[in-house]
Amino acid sequence: MKNLIFLVMAAAVAAGIGYADQFAGSVVVPVGRTAANDGRQMYASYCASCHGMDGKGNGPVAPALKRQPADLSVLSRNNGGRFPAERVHAVLQFGEEAAAHRTAEMPVWGPVLTRMDVSAPQPEMRALRVSNLSRYLQSLQVK
């Protein structure tokens, strides 16, 4: 039984890497398992490589991308002082090919986040992960 669980986890991580490898060229964001209740850890693992730990779009992978990653620290400022939680949730789950990213360079994290918790109901865990990651992004907003 342990071998089966390990095999399923390994397959989920491998599938996640495939979803995360949507960058220009050969840039790959490694997808490891993170705690569903730790938005900071998820951000550091999945977002900071492009957006930087401060959210300003200055991560170490940013120069390899076709376009500068979005400055996530000004989402509230750019939305009349209100953090756009619903929009952030949608982008995290489904990606975006609109004005903010202009291309599909940003990985679609919804499927990756869904596959991380094979022992729990997946829609609920994905929602928990997206919510906690969104809350962490809200904490990065410049005042």
Written description of the protein model:
The chain is mainly α. It has five helices and no strands. Mean pLDDT is 77; it is low at 10-26 and 98-103.
Summary, kept brief:
This protein has 143 residues and is mainly alpha-helical. Helices cover 47% and strands 0% of the residues. It has one domain (2-139).
Topology:
Elements: H1 2-20, H2 39-51, H3 85-94, H4 109-115, H5 122-139
Helix pairs in contact: 1-4, 2-5, 3-4, 3-5, 4-5
In round numbers, the mean pLDDT is: 77
Alpha carbon gap, first and last residue? 50 Å
Number of discrete helical segments:
5
Can you count the beta strands?
Answer: 0
From the helix content, strand content and strand pairing, which structural class follows? mainly alpha
Main beta-sheet annotation: none
Low-confidence stretches: 10-26, 98-103
Strand/helix succession: HHHHH
- Helix fraction bin: 40-55%
Shape: globular
How many domain modules?
1
Radius of gyration: 15 Å
Tell me the strand percentage band. under 5%
